[in-house]
Every structure is written in C-alpha cells, then in structure tokens.
Write a structure and sequence with these properties.
The chain has helices at 3-6, 129-141, 158-176, and strands at 10-12, 17-24, 30-35, 40-46, 56-59, 73-77, 87-100, 103-104, 107-112, 150-156. The chain has 178 residues and is α+β, with helices and mostly antiparallel strands. The strands form two sheets. It has a five-stranded mixed beta barrel. β7 and β8 (103-104) form a beta hairpin. The two termini are 18 Å apart.
Length: 178
C-alpha cells in the first residue's frame, strides 16, 4: 500500500475528519519528508534555527497542490508528539495562507481527532490566539538562518480549508488517474 496514493483523504467528510501522514513530530528540529515513490518517511534536513517544531506536521494523502507541486501540507495540533510515518485522523479547523520561495504554500490547520485536550475546538476561531501566534512566528523565522524568507499571510475559515482540500484532491485525481 502506498500511503500517499491509497490512503483515503477523508476519514469522515461530513465531520471534516481527514487522514494525515505525519512527517515531523512536535518538538523536533529534524525535518523529515515523505518519499511518495519509496513510501517511507526519510530525513530531509536539520533545522538551522534554534527552534523546535511547535506542532506536528505532515501531508494529506491523495492531494496535490498545483502551486508548489507537492501534497497539501497539514499542521496537526495536539498536546502529544506524533511519530513520523504515523497516520493520524484530524479535524479540519482552518487554513493558513503563506508564500514560501515565491509559491503559495497553504497549510491546513487541523486538530488531532482523539486528543481530549482539544475537544470542543471546531473552527480556527476556537484555536487559542497564542497557539496561532506560535505557528505564525515559527513559520516566519525557522528558515531565517538559511537566508530564506517566508511570508505568512492570514488564517482563514474551516470552509475555506475544506474547499482548498477538495481542490487539491481534484488535482491529485487529475494528475494520477491515467
């Protein structure tokens, strides 16, 4: 089974529950990346800034972001660090619009579905301001020592996140259905 191509995107579309493939655990300074061809999570690089990942980070299966030519990225909020390569169901709550290297690089914001500390969060407005500020700060600064700049624009609604997710799902189907 190829996780990227075979794992369903939606675990429960009516409840906005997605399947995610975790690449980088919260607290890590090691950037792992899912290799779609080998179906493994492999070492990509080490973060140069003295900042650890403040959230779990991964990708959405069966999505293709036409802007950056990669699967759609997901930030999975949780009180727990999730292992690279693990599959985590998560509830979509919003999206963060950003530009990285001159390309749009949206990040779906989701909460780990089974994390009891986050029950009751349904939209991006329910996510604590400090948590959103940490996400914003990390993404603006984690590449600074590499001489790279990331423009973090704004958080948008759950509905916008679902729309973007479904568009990237259509892109995936068009790219790989032949």
């Amino acid at each position: 089974m190829n996780l990227y191509k075979d794992l369903p995107l939606w675990a429960d579309e009516n409840a906005a529950i997605i399947n995610t493939i975790i690449e980088i655990p919260m607290g890590s300074m090691v950037k792992y990346e899912y290799n779609k061809d080998l179906n493994v999570v492999e070492l990509d690089r080490f973060l140069t800034a003295p900042m650890a990942m403040p959230y779990n980070y991964g990708l959405l299966p069966q999505t293709y972001n036409a802007e950056d030519k990669d699967p759609l990225d997901v930030i999975v909020l949780s009180h727990y660090s999730l292992a690279p390569g693990s599959i985590a169901k998560a509830k979509v709550v919003g999206v963060l619009h950003m530009v990285d290297g001159g390309e749009a690089d949206d990040k779906i914001i989701a909460i780990a579905y089974k994390d009891p500390f986050l029950w009751g969060i349904d939209t991006i407005d329910d996510v604590h301001k400090h948590t959103k500020d940490q996400i914003d700060h990390f993404l603006k600064h984690y590449k600074a020592l590499e001489g790279k700049h990331v423009d973090v624009s704004w958080f948008a609604s759950k509905e916008k996140a679902i729309f973007i997710t479904n568009e990237c799902y259509k892109n995936f189907k068009n790219k790989y259905s032949g």
